[in-house]
Specification:
This protein is α+β, with helices and mostly antiparallel strands and 116 residues long. It has one domain: YaeB-like fold. Helices cover 53% and strands 28% of the residues. The chain contains 3 helices and 5 strands. A 5-stranded mixed β-sheet has the order 1-5-4-3-2. A hairpin with a 2-residue loop joins strand 3 and strand 4. The mean pLDDT is 88. InterPro entries: RelE/ParE_toxin, RelE/ParE_toxin_dom_sf. It comes from Flavobacterium arcticum. This is Type II toxin-antitoxin system RelE/ParE family toxin. Keywords: Toxin-antitoxin system. Pfam families: ParE_toxin (PF05016).
Amino acid sequence: MAHIKLTRRANFDLVAIYDYSIEQWGEHVADEYINGLQNVLLLLQDNPKLLTYNPTISSRFQCFRHQKHWLICETIGDVIIVLTVLHSAMNLLENLKKYEPSLEQEAETLYKRLKN
């Protein structure tokens, strides 16, 4: 079983997704969507091999799609680090290029903290 850790960016993304969902469709729908994302995290924890490399999104990071969002992850040992959660309508490749240096650094910091 893998351990799941979220970067600050991923936490920010989830809050933004929740807030946007409340504004657009109400609290019930927002709760259901976030619960779905939480279930995906549990699924990945038990089945880390479900993460795949998708060169149209990133050649560096692993991905998993849940409905309209992509979880962008890095696996280090038995730790899955969720780097960011991006909507499929966004220019994923461009956004990842913009965030990649800070995401890599945050993933490495999280991993080091876990090992100490």
